Amino acid sequence: MYIKKNHTFSNLKKFVKKKKKSRQMQFEAKCACTNIKQFIELEDKHICNCSTCKRYVGGKTCTYFTTPLHNFNLNKTKSYASGVGSKRIFCSNCFTYIGMVYNDHECVYINSSVLDEMPEGLRTYRHIWTSSR
Description:
single chain, disordered N terminus
């Protein structure tokens, strides 16, 4: 992309492509004991192939769906730091694996196993740790 040297930062905004959001869909997320039971809007799908995620879900991949951080009540959860800037969250009562929160992201990654139904039509935004397949 060619940009003239005298362009200001505000003029450059029109050249930057913004991330397109998937359409939002509302689903119920709940743990095994229903201590956590809330309706949330989901935005994007993320697939992880890391060994830790696969261990938690007992599968070949782990599918997460994002919801804005302000949409999910973390009061009834427990967490532990699972990496630099990230934590895994669980129900504080039955210890169902709920998902992940990253310090620098404005969303919660909800594990698909806590959703009442598998969302369709949401685009896959990230597919990570593919070398771990």
